[in-house]
Q: What sequence folds into this?
């Protein structure tokens, strides 16, 4: 069976290449070649399972069309993004490609590489089914350029309840950042070297963004990205001071770790807390940890009621081959069945609010409830809030702070990053 | 056939071409390929560096040296250059020292020289990337119970106080990350020096000994001066490799600000700011050229004089 499947896949691939060449020969006409080519960086684990589930749904709904999946391995899409760019530059775009929803797509939008898909939103009634604040976040100058497949949340604390109990601390969320710092002081007095586990530069950016949300509030935080909040203000200074204090409770070997290491430190009880997105439970599941028993979670203190979101989404490139097929793919991505199947496998939650949570895991159920009622703000560390260039400048400043902790320098760097990149937003 | 009949006449007329023509024909494929894929692309890189193509899909316009001015005045790039300088100095001192030390030891004709030579040379056979994976673990900064790699070794062997966070320390971190590179290339330096020692005629040593030179004086006044051309080549080879360092740092530390060097900086920005990436690449090329070109000129001159 497997061999026949392989053989037919090979023939299919060869056939596609031939048709693709044929297309080029008659001047690269962009009309249909029958195939829908999608590019992603989902090649392993839950991500790949989710993509396969989506493809299965597409094949079921549109049996006449052939879906060609081009996955390119590399964490965070580092390689895939380069290939996508090359193909866009040479005028050979795929039918649809993956991108983080929000500001990360700005480069594509500003250069006219991807199309408005808001007509699809009207057709499918997504404007009423996706939360209004999400729609607002996806809209640029009245147009929407992508269809989100899932929603992740970044402002979460993962904690080890037995460590907290041992130190006489409650297992409920501290009311504010200040209370949280007090708890960490207690843990430190109790002999714990690093109550807050953290990893390399980008995880520190994620901690910083949640502190900014907590201290500035969701509106002023969102204002940082559209210029209505001043990076040089004293409110930002206060938030950076809190961030600096929190960093004194973190592990000194953070530079050589990545997020699985820091979440592992919490699971092993070496640290009490870590701030990370909701892809953590998938890792804990592998270690057979039981939610609410071996680990607990709550929004970063001070950000209760705020959903710091990031989303994987699909786009429609200008001159996409087989535009109709690409739109059909986007329909599947946004559909009830597609979102259910995808997110059950990937561990995130659907962007749609009309899906029954009972078929999802423990964490996902709580997240789906929050997503309906919370204020939604864009995540910085994951490309929803600022362009890639801006994020890179901020990451560099945060990385510098890690070994040279000076709040004044950090704020200066953040202000100059905003001056340089905010204008292009 | 008709050509053959004409040949004697033509040969006389086109005497010049007949001598250099076939040679040129033979090397022309490589000239064309190198011209396009090396010098053509370098030219294109400079063109990009002089343009304002800052986002991915944007027509480019010529803006002169603005990118270079911006880059060279930028704190982050200066930090990357400082890192590179520290790394290079550490790497050069380390490899030259160990290379020379091993060469002196082996040169004295100890038993099993071949085996030792292979042992020292062997790390060079490993790619920087796979060596980096191992050193990423060896240089893990975790201490105490979580310690791994070298820190664990220090802990279990006694000098626990030697544990440190390795490359995650300001400035000195670059010295730590130069260690894997020293480990890989000291053997190569040894081979160069050993060849240098072997090319010195035995008569010179004998003469020096006859004149009553001590072993130290023999090395100081007779052997080392003879080695200086080899040492210069070794310095240039190691120096230009060090300036271009990318793989070992990227594998061990990714894009961490702490150990950022121009090459990793370039890799980081190339997806979203092509002009800036091209500018960094140009600066790197110029820095390496500053080192290499005088050497090539010097070499050319000494060969001519011979």
A:
């Amino acid at each position: 069976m497997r061999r026949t499947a392989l053989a037919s896949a090979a023939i299919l691939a060869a056939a596609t290449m031939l048709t693709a060449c044929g297309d080029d020969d008659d001047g690269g006409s962009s009309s249909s070649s029958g195939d829908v080519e999608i590019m992603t960086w989902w090649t392993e684990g839950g991500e790949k399972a989710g993509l396969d589930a989506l493809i299965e749904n597409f094949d079921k709904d549109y049996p006449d069309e052939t879906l060609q999946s081009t996955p390119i391995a590399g964490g965070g899409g580092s390689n895939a993004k380069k290939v996508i760019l090359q193909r866009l530059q040479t005028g050979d775009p795929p039918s649809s490609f993956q991108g983080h929803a929000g500001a990360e797509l700005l480069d594509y939008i500003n250069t006219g590489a991807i199309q408005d898909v808001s007509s699809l939103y009207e057709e499918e009634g997504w404007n009423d089914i996706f939360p209004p604040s999400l729609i607002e976040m996806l809209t640029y100058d009245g147009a929407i350029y992508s269809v989100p497949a899932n929603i992740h949340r970044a402002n979460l604390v993962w904690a080890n309840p037995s460590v907290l109990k041992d130190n006489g601390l409650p297992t409920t969320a501290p009311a504010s950042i200040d209370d949280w710092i007090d708890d960490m002081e207690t843990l430190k007095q109790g002999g714990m070297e690093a109550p807050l586990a953290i990893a390399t530069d980008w995880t520190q950016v994620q901690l910083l963004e949640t502190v900014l949300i907590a201290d500035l509030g969701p509106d002023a935080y969102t204002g940082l990205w559209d210029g209505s909040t001043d990076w040089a203000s004293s409110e930002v200074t206060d938030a950076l001071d809190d961030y600096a204090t929190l960093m004194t409770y973190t592990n000194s070997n953070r530079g050589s770790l990545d997020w699985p290491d820091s979440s592992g430190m919490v699971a092993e009880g070496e640290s009490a807390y870590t701030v990370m997105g909701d892809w953590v439970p998938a890792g804990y599941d592998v270690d057979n940890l039981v939610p609410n028993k071996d680990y607990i979670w709550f929004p970063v203190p001070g950000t209760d009621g705020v959903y710091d979101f990031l989303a994987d989404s699909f786009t429609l490139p200008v001159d996409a081959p087989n535009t109709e097929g690409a739109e059909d793919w986007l329909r599947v991505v946004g559909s009830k069945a597609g979102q259910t199947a995808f997110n059950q496998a990937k561990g995130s939650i659907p962007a749609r609010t009309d899906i029954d949570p009972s078929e999802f895991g423990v964490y996902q159920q709580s997240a789906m409830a929050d997503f309906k009622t919370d204020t939604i703000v864009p995540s910085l560390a994951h490309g929803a809030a600022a362009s890639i260039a801006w994020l890179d400048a901020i990451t560099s400043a945060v990385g510098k702070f890690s070994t040279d902790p000076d709040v004044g320098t950090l704020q200066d760097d953040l202000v100059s990053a905003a001056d340089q990149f905010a204008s292009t937003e | 056939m008709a050509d053959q009949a004409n040949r004697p006449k033509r040969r006389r007329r086109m005497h010049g071409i007949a001598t250099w023509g076939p040679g040129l024909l033979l090397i022309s494929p490589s000239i064309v390929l190198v011209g396009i894929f090396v010098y053509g692309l370098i030219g294109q890189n400079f063109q990009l560096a002089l343009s304002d193509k800052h986002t991915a899909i944007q027509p480019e316009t010529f803006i002169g040296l603005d990118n270079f001015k911006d880059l060279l005045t930028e704190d982050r790039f200066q930090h990357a250059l400082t890192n590179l300088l520290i790394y290079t100095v550490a790497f050069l001192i380390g490899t030259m020292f160990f290379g020379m030390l091993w060469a002196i030891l082996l040169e004295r004709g100890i038993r099993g020289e071949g085996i030792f030579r292979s042992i020292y040379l062997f790390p060079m056979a490993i790619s920087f990337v796979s060596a980096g994976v191992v050193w990423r673990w060896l240089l893990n900064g975790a201490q105490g119970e979580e310690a791994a790699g070298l820190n664990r070794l220090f802990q279990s062997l006694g000098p626990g106080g030697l544990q440190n966070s390795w490359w995650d320390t300001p400035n000195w971190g670059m010295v730590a990350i130069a260690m894997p590179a020293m480990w890989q290339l000291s053997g190569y330096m040894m081979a160069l020096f050993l060849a240098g020692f072997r090319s010195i005629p035995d008569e010179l040593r004998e003469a020096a000994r006859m004149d009553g030179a001590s072993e130290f004086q023999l090395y100081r006044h007779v052997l080392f001066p003879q080695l200086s051309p080899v040492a210069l080549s070794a310095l240039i080879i190691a120096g230009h490799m060090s300036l271009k360092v990318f793989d070992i740092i990227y594998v061990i530390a990714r894009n961490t600000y702490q150990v950022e060097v121009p090459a990793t900086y370039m890799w980081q920005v190339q997806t979203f700011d092509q002009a800036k990436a091209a500018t960094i690449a140009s600066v790197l090329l110029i820095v390496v050229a500053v080192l290499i070109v005088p050497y090539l000129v010097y070499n050319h001159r000494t060969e001519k004089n011979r």
The two ends of chain B are 47 Å apart (CA to CA). Chain B has one domain: 72-305. Chain B has 13 helices and no strands. The domain at 72-305 of chain B is CATH 1.10.3720.10 (MetI-like fold).
